[in-house]
Structures are given as C-alpha cells and as structure tokens.
Amino acid sequence: MRRFSEFLQDVREGDADYELAGFLRELSEQVSVTGKVGTLAYTIKVLPGGDGKIIVKDTIKLNLPEPERPSTLFFPTSEGDLSRRDPRQYSLDDLKVADQKVKPVLRSTEEIEGAEMEEDR
User: Fold this and answer.
1) What is the pLDDT of residues 105-120, one digit of tens each?
2) Of 5, 41, 60, 92, whose CB has the highest number of CB atoms within 10 Å?
3) Structural domain spans, the chain
4) Could you give the 3-state DSSP secondary structure of residue 49?
5) Is the pTM of this model over 0.85?
C-alpha cells in the first residue's frame, strides 16, 4: 500500500503538502499566542474521471483562533448616547479650588521632634 504522505506530495504537484505545512505552522503559532483552539481541515474529494481515471480535488480550511479583544466600559446618557464619563460622578471641573493665599506651615524635623519631647514630659 502506498503511504498517504507520498500521495499528498503528488496532489497538485506538491502544492497541497506545502500549503498544509505552512498552515499548520501558522495555526500552531496562533494557538501558542492566544491559548485557544484552532483547526486545520483537509478534505479530499474523489471523482470518477471516465476511462478508468480518478480525479482528486482537495480543500483546505484553516480556522485560526481569535485573540481576545479588549472591551470598553460606557455609561448611557439621558439622551440615549454612550459616554465614557459616569454621569453620576462629579468631574474635576465641578470641584472648587481652595484659597491659594493660604500657605502651608512647614516645620523642620528638629522642631517636630522637640514638640514631641515636650508632649512626653
């Protein structure tokens, strides 16, 4: 009996074998990247050719796994549109700026430590 691999080398003068090898490599790479299942299907249709001949037609179907696509969170507006901003949440534009004339009191480490010692007494 003739081996299938030898037959495959003759289908379309070796093009089927070459295509299958390339598709298998592409499939294995995508499965490794995505961690998902993919398929490679090879179908052979055998037809009568008349006068004792046989016609072979082949089909290759490659189903690559799809990578995850990130989703985006939206909020519906009262008008029925979608917005990235939550209408229930205040924006920074809604906040008031504190009086900028007030200067923070800065104290040195020595002053802070001295004050703590006096509190301990």
Assistant:
1) 767 777 767 666 666 6
2) 60
3) 4-63, 75-120
4) strand
5) no
